[in-house]
Amino acid sequence: MSIYGAQAVVPKLDAGGSNFWNWDAAITLYAQIHDATEVLTGEKPRPSSPSYTDLIDEPELLEGTALDPANDEHIELMSKRKIFDDSRQSINNSIIKSAERPRLNLDLSCKR
Q: I need a surface site. Which of 1, 13, 28, 112 has the fewest CB within 10 A?
């Protein structure tokens, strides 16, 4: 189940309101997952824009003039650095992709 599938998380509210407490708990949890609780409390009309906090900073550059391509330790160091850089970029891309997913749009107005 995807956390972005509202129909899988939030039950449909019965016309008579008999399942209101289940619905209310589910919609609150769904808003918390999407960091949109301010919408439910009325503090904001829409959720905040995506945030890119927790990105892994780019490390300092390696001093390439001191590295010897014939030295096994230096080759291993460059290999580990490449693996780290690739992993860091992959993690950052995942964070950015998650932050850019469509935000929760709730219509909480009462229609009669």
A: 112
pLDDT tens figures, 21-67: 888 888 888 888 777 888 888 898 887 776 666 778 888 887 777 88
CB contact set of 77 (below 8 Å; sequence gap of 6+): 62, 67
- Residue 58 CB neighbours (<10 A): 10
Contacts of 55 (CB under 8 A, 6+ apart): 92, 95, 96
φ, ψ dihedrals at 38, nearest 5°: -65, -25
> What's the confidence (pLDDT) of residue 1?
40
